[in-house]
Amino acid sequence: MLDWLIIGGGIHGTYLSLYLTRRRRIPADQVRVLDPHPQPLALWQHFTANTGMSYLRSPHAHNLHYDPFSLITFTRTNDGQPLADFIEPYGRPSLQLFNTHSQTLIERYHLDELRLLGRATGLHRLAEGWQVATNNGTLEARNVILAFSNTERPYWPDWARTAQAEGANIHHLFDPAFTRATSPGHTLVVGGGITAAQTATALALESSGSVTLLMRHPPRIHQFDSDLGWITHQHLDGFYQDADYARRRHLIRTARHRGSMPPDVVRELEAAVQHGILDQRIDEVKAVRYQHGKLYLTLESGDTLTTDRIILATGFETSRPGGAWLDAAIKAYGLPVAEDGFPIVDQRLCWSEGLFVSGSLAELEIGPVARNFIGVKLAAERIGAGL
After folding, report:
1. Of 137, 113, 140, 138, residue with least CA distance to 126
2. Measured between alpha carbons, how far is 119 from 137 in angstroms, rounded to an integer?
3. Deepest in the core among 83, 156, 167, 361, taking most CB within 10 A?
4. Cβ distance 165 to 157 under 8 Å?
């Protein structure tokens, strides 16, 4: 039986595996990470490459190591110094620097050796821990951390699903099977946040065809996707004092700057528009018709738009991740949930004896930043507090 099993091997799962084995000195042979992708951070690397991201939205302290200065220290080494590339404010690292630093940590601490390939399909309580059913057999652990999210459930508007079912060239940027490529025809990018802006700008610079960005609203400019006060007592004290989880959910929703982007991304977007390589439209799709390889869109304003392909940058589903197997465990063991189905956990993020959560599953305790880099750092310290 393992001591710790982490379900989910993205940013959160990989960080937690390093934290447990190095910070909390759990023997490496007692920690495993279950993930359907063979390499750590596989979806992170795929999605960021799809968007054409150059710099992270998070500061350098929010890296894969529990030491906030680890990335800065890396830039003073022979391998890291040539990659030392940051953008202000807050010293945000380039994607290349972040990825190289992360891979260095994975190799140095042999985090790839902790991984087990598979998907969780069931969760069953044992006398001294939990049994996790997977598509490759069963695993047993005294402690389980649910560290997955909706990264394989991109949000599709109804009109887009209908058109795709008819054979239209529509893809979601966050579909694990989709790889963004240039196109000689016209590409329409749909979305209003940082991902849509980065994708449209990258395509406009790379593509031989024309590109349009369709946004429901003008750019919403925010440096981060929630106020910095949500990682300090400034906002969190009031959040914790409210025992009503419906009100906590309301606070989380209102605190997040959904569909926003930092000033540097706005400047790049505006430059692309001003130079005539990108068309920006503030409107919304009302109806779409697919015929002879073309997509004919009617917009809410009454205008029409014709395109050869559509790339959706509309984020992920917002419902609780986990699906049917987690629903069954909630029912079987009376795991407490709020009205929205998300876990009600204690301060250690413990949902039931030996069962912990991180990421979006920890939102009602960690707050609006739970899904982010800083969210997993906060989660790890909570989980590790009793070790």
Report:
1. 140
2. 10
3. 361
4. no
Concatenating the DSSP letter of every residue in 329-342 gives HHHHHT--B-TTS-
Phi, then psi, of 130 in degrees rounded to 5: -140, 150
Tally Cβ neighbours within 10 Å of residue 201. 25
> Which tokens is 81 given?
């110094």
Give the CA distances from residue 247 to residues 292, 298, 385, in Å, rounded to whole numbers and listed in that order. Answer: 49, 38, 27
Give the C-alpha distances (Å, rounded to integers) separating 269 from 83, 192, 195: 25, 12, 11
Q: What is the pTM of this model?
A: 0.96
Could you give all domains of the chain from N- to C-terminal order, each with its CATH number?
Answer: 2-152+317-384 (3.50.50.60), 158-222+257-312 (3.50.50.60)
- Specify the DSSP class assigned to residue 94: B
Say whether 158 sits in a helix, a strand or coil.
Answer: helix
- Helix H or strand E encompassing 270: helix 263-274
* pLDDT in 10s for each residue of the chain, 387 residues: 999 999 999 999 999 999 999 999 999 999 999 999 989 999 999 999 999 999 999 999 999 999 999 999 999 999 999 999 999 999 999 999 999 999 999 999 999 999 999 999 999 999 999 999 999 999 999 999 999 999 999 999 999 999 999 999 999 999 999 999 888 899 999 999 999 999 999 999 998 889 999 999 999 999 999 998 999 889 989 999 999 999 999 999 999 999 999 999 999 999 999 999 999 999 999 999 999 999 999 999 999 999 999 999 999 999 999 999 999 999 999 999 999 999 999 999 999 999 999 999 999 999 999 999 999 999 999 999 988
